[in-house]
Amino acid sequence: MHTSNEGGSDTALSELSRTFEAFREQVLAQWRLRVTAEIPSAAQLDEPLLINMLPTLYDNITEALAADSPRPYGTTGTNLATAHGRERASMTDYAPHDLIHELQIFREVLFSITKAKGVTLSKRDAEVIGHSIEEAAREAISGFSEADKERNVGFIATLSHDLRNPLHVASASAQLIQLKTSDPGIVNLAQRICKKLSEADSMIQTLLDAAVLQGRMRLKLRLSTFDIMALVEEVCADMPLLGQQVSVAGERIEGKWCRVSMKRALENLLSNAHKYGDTGQAITVRVHHEDHLMILSIHNAGTPIPRAEMDRLFKSYQRMADTDVKGWGLGLPFVQNVVESHGGTVVIDSAEGVGTTFTISVPVDASPYVSP
Question: For residues 305 and 308, what is the distance between their CA atoms, to the nearest angstrom?
């Protein structure tokens, strides 16, 4: 039995963190059972999609309970809860109350097992746990609402797509008129019609492209089986040409993803790390396998991203404040779209003295989550 008193020693708090690490799997297992029993929408989810960010939130809370932790709460320095809410909105049949319910269950299970294990929590310890889960719920709902609004923007894309059909018919008819007459006036008029229809079609295509990104519509992916580490090595090989060293570590994982979009996402993240990080220190790319997920992280040293900036970075045409970096601000929204289209999430973790890490988590086999 472990007891930590309010204002207790660093050793006691460190011991509490180790105690929490010891019954991590028990908490997650009981959470799974209760969530699938109490939330109908959760019962239909496969394991990677069901568990999602809960292990990371648990680990962050454990870290926050440690002595002198730079993370005062489990949600500090990361957008994991917002990413979780977005995933629940785009990949499940959850309603907002289901999202709140699953986090309430997490809190109940965590405190119940803590009590059953004979662990006495100080007021400070309980506040860390409670505030972390409450803040996670608030941020998750924010992410859920944002994704839901973006999905509504998809209506624009559907309407635009439908408008192109009559335009194509009209254009074909105008071209046929040119072939059927020798009257210069009619030919000239038909050519003008074709030109204006082409301009309208071009504008609609631009609208479609913007809607896909702004509305976070899931991308059309072409899946193939390949080794993600080979792709990482291919993309990272060009970084020294930019004056930036890259360290690659991890394991070779063969999975089923869209190689073209994953490559572009990786290039965007590496470019982002190079532009905003400390170019005097190497970028670190790590790949590992956890359960049914492929986890790919890209870390750069340098000035941390302020918490208020994190969610803005995934909005189109938004960039970090107080920066001279130029561009449209579409890189990270594209990365998020690629990852979510694969049935995964992208999470930022950034803190002073630690640097910034972008972590992609996608199923090893994305085919169940990709629209045909």
Answer: 8
3-state secondary structure of 328: coil
> Coil, helix or strand for 362?
strand
- In what helix (H) or strand (E) does residue 238 lie, and over which residues does it extend? none
Per-residue pLDDT of the chain (372 residues; tens, 9 = 90+): 333 334 433 434 468 888 999 999 999 999 999 999 999 999 989 888 999 899 999 999 999 998 778 889 999 999 999 999 999 998 899 999 999 999 999 999 999 999 999 998 999 999 999 999 999 999 999 999 888 777 666 566 666 667 777 887 888 888 889 888 888 899 899 888 988 888 787 667 656 655 555 555 567 789 999 999 999 999 998 777 667 789 999 999 999 999 988 998 998 899 888 888 888 899 999 999 988 999 999 999 988 888 877 777 777 544 444 444 333 345 788 788 889 889 999 999 998 888 999 999 999 999 998 876
Positive or negative, the CA dihedral 115, 120, 122, 125 is negative
* Residues linked to residue 224 through DSSP beta bridges, in sequence order: 257
Sign of CA dihedral 201, 202, 207, 209: positive
Q: What is the domain partition of the chain in residue ranges? A: 1-217, 223-369
In the chain, the largest separation of any two C-alpha atoms, in whole Å, equals 97
E strand or H helix that includes residue 250:
strand 246-250
Q: What's the CATH number of domain 223-369, 1.20.58.220, 3.90.1300.10, 3.30.565.10, 3.30.450.40? A: 3.30.565.10
